[in-house]
Known about the structure:
22% strand; D-Amino Acid Oxidase, Chain A, domain 2; FAD/NAD(P)-binding domain
Amino acid sequence: MPQTADSGRPTALVIGASATGLFAASVLAEFADVVVVERDRLPDGPESRKGVPQARHAHLVWSGGVQAFDELLPGFTDSVVEQGGRLVRIMGDMVSRAPNEVWFRRFEGGRHRNLVCSRDLLDHVLRERVLRDPRITLHEDSTVECLEGGPGRVTGIRVRTGTGARTLHAALVIDASGRGSRAPAWLEALGLPRVAERRVDAGVAYATRSYRAPAAAADGFPLVNVQANPARTPGQGGIILPVEDGRWIVTLCGTRGGEPAKDPSAFAGFALGLGDPVIGRLLEAAEPLGEVVTSRSTANQRRYYEKMKHWPDGFAVLGDAIAGYNPVYGHGLTVAAQCALALRGVLRSAGLTASGTARRIQRAAARPVSGAWDLAVGQDAFYPGATDTPPKAVEKFLARFVDRAVETGARSPRALGALLDVISLERPATRLFSRDMLVPMFLGPKKPHIQGPPLTHDERKVIAGAASGPVR
């Protein structure tokens, strides 16, 4: 039976103190006493931890995520900014080349904003905000072994700690354990069939190094992004992400046969060899900090829990545990927060302990997951060897239409607004077929395409000063 805490409220368990887990815990605290079960020991400050190996690579939060953050935790974004993060205008504060090698004009009148900071800072502010809630308890150094219950209802989890194993009972268990989630095996152990899965792996490898920004670029320097082109293999790209403490987080990527190396002496050279050398030229003016870190955990992987014929009460899966995406698209944190909003919407309408609530949660979470999945797979499926199922005719048509939408948005502020509504996960992809996109696409007016990175005079001076910069 569902457990009720001494407070008279039901108990909810969250597996994983990930961003998804913490957002979910903040929602659940409205309805239950919450226990967060975490395998690691969490750091006290803005530091990396073992359970988030991707944290040292470049991260950003699209405007759909910024909105979701502040809807879940009012004032959260302001707290991040107060501690060194930035709200970056898209595209006004960005120098960005799209996958089809079109440079975006830096239109300044749009409303879309990215939250830019290190992942360590973001996670630190999130932990500080959520875990100070007295309705939420954290159990660290605790590994979940299995679900308790049966195929009709999950009643808790079996947890192993340094002192042994024990069972924790709850009215609702949320799996927010990320890409490595063991939920498929746990559900099978309860007698349920294996969940259907799909994997699209473009073979992307990442290499990241931190730099001290040049003095001339210490304040307000734009985010610089050269995206890989699926039509040119191997696809190679990179990003300079200006973050707190005057640092640049620089992440380079390449698909099979064109992966960046871990060798520090080859890092800037790889950046110079991208479709445009702007990132490499900027690095020549910057001071490297630390070594190069690499990752190959970049495949798009999705589990279709919402399509399972039978689903147990008392259990739901959220965030990366449903689907993980190629990090180049920057959608993971946005989906984490939007899944928590979906959870809140279901609990406010159906109640935490009602029969069928868990299935409603799973179906509601599938909506933000699907939006990000379609955007990522719509690009990555075209890399050689990415999937056993070649793109269908309709997928090829949609890919061509998206390229046309990008070309239009790159030189029309009206169309760019519609494009960013979709890329930022604020609106569904049908927004690309609205008048805001179709009128500029077919009738204009549109400015001509620009032929190179839209740097200002002062920003170009940073590159010009590279010759007198540090020698490496």
